[in-house]
Specification:
Layout: H1 2-35, H2 38-60
Helix pairs in contact: 1-2
Length: 61
Amino acid sequence: MQKYKVEHIACARHYNMVMLLYKSVIVKWEKAQNQNSKLSDIKLVKILDDAKEFNEKESKI
């Protein structure tokens, strides 16, 4: 029972992190659209890459 509880908490934490990343990417994407510049698009790609790397690291743990 204890092991299940710990795994459940870890899953919930991972889900929350992913959701926070997802929300932050959307906000940054909207800002990029408002500025309508190539620099913003480059930043967005980097943010998405960082989010992808973070997810890969988290899934290994």
